[in-house]
Amino acid sequence: MHVAILLYPRFTALDAVGPYTVLAFAPGWTVTFVAAEPGPVTDDQGTLTLTATASYEDLPHPDVIVVPGGPGTFDAMSDEALLGWLRGAHEHSRWTTSVCSGSFILAAAGLLEGLRATSHWGVLDMLRQYGAEPVSERVVSQGRIVTAAGVSAGIDMALTLLAQATDETTAQSVQLVIEYDPHPPFDAGSPKTAPEGLRELALKLIA
């Protein structure tokens, strides 16, 4: 199974690295970072770069596509080269996935029309403007399209995908390898449970 993780300027690192860590451990799976051209791509903090080792032309038909989100999402939505690669790759992929606001890139490519999808809570409702039905769930599977909520949900998405593509035992083995056993110190990871006023502060951090 060959996985292509799309990179573009100002992506959020964990959106890409979370699924990468899960899927790279899967037996027989290969993960490649792909961008318009090979080379370093800088994240939304401007301090971390990942190296794309393949261009769109180098990897036209991956088995799995992962599209991360981040502040660069909305520029990427108007990048016709990126969208053209995504549409063509999706025609042949077994699964096309997104993390966080990466679902907006799927929508811009016309892949979410009429489908249930999720994204980061701060922009979730905007998905409706692009023809999708926004739902507040951690991972949403719609046939071979799978979307994940904000940032850390990419790990859940990748484990869900791995279980579907192989079996639960393989996915559970990878979960154990990466010791994914979250016990967060605060119950503030969702707007449903966060203390009053925290939502506004979090949105300022995004801005």
UniProtKB/TrEMBL annotation:
SUPFAM superfamilies per UniProt: Class I glutamine amidotransferase-like
Source superkingdom: Bacteria
InterPro entries with a match to the protein in the record: Class_I_gatase-like, DJ-1/PfpI, INH-QAR
Pfam family, one: DJ-1_PfpI
Domain named DJ-1/PfpI: residues: 2-163
One biological process term in Gene Ontology: regulation of DNA-templated transcription
PANTHER family with a match to the protein in the record: ARAC-FAMILY TRANSCRIPTIONAL REGULATOR (PTHR43130), DJ-1_PFPI DOMAIN-CONTAINING PROTEIN (PTHR43130:SF2)
Listed name of the protein: Transcriptional regulator GlxA family with amidase domain
